[in-house]
Amino acid sequence: MSVLGLGRMGSALACALVKKGYDVTVWNRSADKQTPAGARRAGDLDEAFEADVVVTCLATYEVQRPLLSKNIKALVNLTSGTPEEARVTAEWARDNGVEYVDGVIMAVPQQIGTPGARIFFAGNEEHHVLDAFGEPVYVGQDAGLAALYDLGLLGVMWATFAGYLQAVALTGTEGVTPQQLTPMVADWLRELAEMLPEMGEETQHRDYETEVSALDINVSGLRMLAEASRRQGVDSALPQALHDLYQRAQQKGHGTHSIASVIEVIR
Ligand code: NDP
Fold this sequence. Notes:
- This protein is an alpha/beta fold.
- The chain folds into two domains: 2-148, NAD(P)-binding Rossmann-like Domain (Rossmann fold); 175-266, N-(1-d-carboxylethyl)-l-norvaline Dehydrogenase, domain 2 (Orthogonal Bundle), CATH 1.10.1040.10.
- Helix content is 48%, strand content 13%.
- An eight-stranded mixed beta sheet has the order 3-2-1-4-5-6-7-8, with helices on both faces.
- Helix 5 packs across helix 6 (178-205) and helix 7 runs antiparallel to helix 8.
- The mean pLDDT is 96.
- It holds the Pfam family NAD_binding_2.
- This is 3-hydroxyisobutyrate dehydrogenase.
């Protein structure tokens, strides 16, 4: 087994393979990265390609592309990228007779090797190597699917974290501490998560009738959040962007509909 890339994640992957008893060879562009205990450093890429399986975990596909070779027998790609990049790599693998599994890691390096570390993977269903890293979740045959799920879920994460930080900054202007605020946000997020299945169904059936909360009231709430942020001396770019997005759905005639109708602007 070989691992290309000894960054934070690649090192964690190599360590997990060693722990599982694999014979592990590692390769990294720069010499300064430490060789994980129990692994062997390859003198060059060709030496790393002698392994039955090569796992790649590099910064981007762009830096990975020139390193790939048809001397690789089976490639397990765990470098993050776009669906298109994953599909192009799968095509390259097919054309060069290289077995290919495309995966994305939904965990931080410290979680690798624990059951909580989910690895979405697509294409080839053969995934025995991924077992060493955590919990493999097969998402389908199309090699671009793992990257698609990855970006979708990361989008939820980035939007949620930014919303939380906006709340910390806004309430912080009045002396509220993160310790006071955070338990409330955590409870709120649990409640919001329970609303997602219904919202998903609304987007599927394009039926946005609501007895709960109309878009009109939410647009006006977002206007208040943007205004309060400005008045309290906090950046208002995020609430303003959300206001403008929701308002576009309102202007399309969804004012009395549920928040799910914003999808009509997004897609
Ligand atoms: P790091 O920045 O820690 O490591 C980047 C790796 O890419 C290093 O091995 C680096 O080598 C290599 N690299 C960068 N540029 C080049 C180049 N031009 N040629 C050859 N090698 C190069 O990143 P991570 O380990 O954190 O991330 C690696 C992948 O894992 C990314 O795709 C990331 O999205 C994904 N990932 C990371 C997570 C995390 O929490 N860290 C979570 C989920 C996915 P060198 O040492 O020579 O610079």
